[in-house]
Design goal:
The complex is a heterodimer of chains A (174) and B (205). Chain A is mainly α and 174 residues long. Chain A contains nine helices and no strands. By secondary structure, chain B is mostly helical. The termini of chain B are far apart. The chains are: A mainly alpha (174), B mainly alpha (205).
Chain lengths: 174, 205
């Protein structure tokens, strides 16, 4: 006990570290177990479940003992836990969207299915541009001279609405 | 003896009061944790996107057909070893032993460099040998983004730990030195933690 007290003095640390060697051995054993599970050729769902469980166990060991979360102020758990909540949210919010696309495109690669839909929307983008350009003069009076080139820029996409917006605003402002 | 032990646990139980979060003494640690939380969200978004894309993609290739497990298992072990040397470095400075601290910090940097060497070898093999690129498929895109983003973190960690090591040269053990190594260690262990997940999710599953 006197020894630890003396050890505390120079570093001014309030705790003895965890048994790092033991944590290291656990991590190595769990990695070996992962490789074992990987090599066994188990059915896919069982293998995936076991590997995820082992990986999470390893990650928990690192966070708890190497990163000292186990002996830190409990307030840090809020900081450490926030990303986990957001990641879970992110994953489960992505799932329904992707599953629908996969059903729609059957055997197709998801990317292809994902990219083709926006490309079908592409022709509508100039319209969006014209809208945002006609918004600019409304926001700031300095932008008014820009309204005319913006209207001239997109005569093909939506010729009617853009000049209309440009012409209608100058009378409205004064 | 038992009284002293009781005192010890007592002291540990009051760490909250002893180490308030927003004192200058602990701002470095809190700052690193907040940074790591943000970083975890970036990695997490990447891994969650990868998981969701892969789960619903029937044409996903078997990673074992493309990626070498032996090399990456060795890389995993190297990173776990470097985490051990990192905590040994911390334990060195904690007990006022700067030589031990510098030795183990140097070994940690070495582990990071070996890891990066392995990754460079792997990437070279995949890009030049197998002709994979980030544009080849969703599989290669997620692979290069996840491992590349992690490799950048290891590179940053090597630079970070090297500068801590260089900054400690000629200095005596102090509370400041302890904090420097502790905060740097948080970063390094986080990089190790992320690799543990990437190794499982990208290579094994």
């Amino acid at each position: 006990m006197a020894e630890t007290a003396a050890a505390h003095a120079p570093g001014a640390v309030a705790h003895e570290g965890p048994n790092y060697i033991a944590v290291f051995i656990y991590l190595t054993v769990l990695t070996a177990a992962e490789l074992g599970v990987y090599g066994l050729g188990l059915p896919k769902p069982i293998m995936v479940g076991a590997l995820v469980a082992l990986a999470l166990a390893k990650a928990t060991l690192v966070a708890m003992y190497f990163m000292h979360l186990a002996i830190e102020r409990k307030g840090l758990w809020i900081v450490a836990g926030t990303p986990l909540v957001i990641i879970a949210f992110c994953y489960f919010m992505l799932r329904p969207d992707l599953s629908r696309r996969t059903w729609a495109s059957h055997q197709e690669d998801v990317v292809i299915g994902h990219h083709e839909e926006p490309s079908a929307v592409m022709p509508q983008i100039p319209q969006g541009k014209a809208l945002s350009n006609s918004d600019q003069p409304a926001d700031s009076q300095v932008g008014q001279p820009n309204a005319a080139p913006a209207g001239g820029e997109s005569p093909s996409g939506s010729a009617a609405p853009a000049p209309e917006g440009g012409n209608a605003q100058p009378p409205a402002n004064p | 003896m038992s009284e002293a032990a009781a005192l010890d646990t007592h002291a540990q139980g009051f760490r909250d009061e002893l180490e308030p979060s927003l004192t200058p003494d602990n701002s470095g640690k809190l700052g690193m944790w907040v940074f790591l939380a943000g970083d975890a969200m970036t990695f997490g978004a990447g891994i969650a996107a990868y998981g969701a894309l892969r789960w619903y993609n029937v044409n996903w290739p078997n990673p074992a057909d493309w990626l070498g497990i032996t090399l990456t298992a060795v890389m995993t072990f190297i990173l776990i070893c470097s985490s051990l040397t990192m905590v040994e470095a911390l334990s060195g400075v904690e007990h006022g032993n700067m030589t031990k601290m510098r030795t183990f910090l140097g070994l940690t940097v070495l582990g990071g460099i070996i890891f990066l060497g392995c990754q460079a070898f792997e990437w070279h093999h995949l890009i030049m040998g197998e002709g994979l690129s980030i544009k080849t498929s969703l599989f290669s895109a997620t692979f290069f983004i996840l491992t590349g983003f992690h490799g950048m973190h290891v590179s940053g960690g090597v630079i970070y730990l090297s500068s801590v090591l260089l900054g400690s040269l000629g200095k005596e053990a102090s509370h400041h030195q302890f904090k420097m190594v502790e905060v740097a260690g948080l970063y390094w262990h986080f990089v190790d933690l992320v690799w543990i997940l990437i190794f499982t999710f990208v290579y094994l599953i």
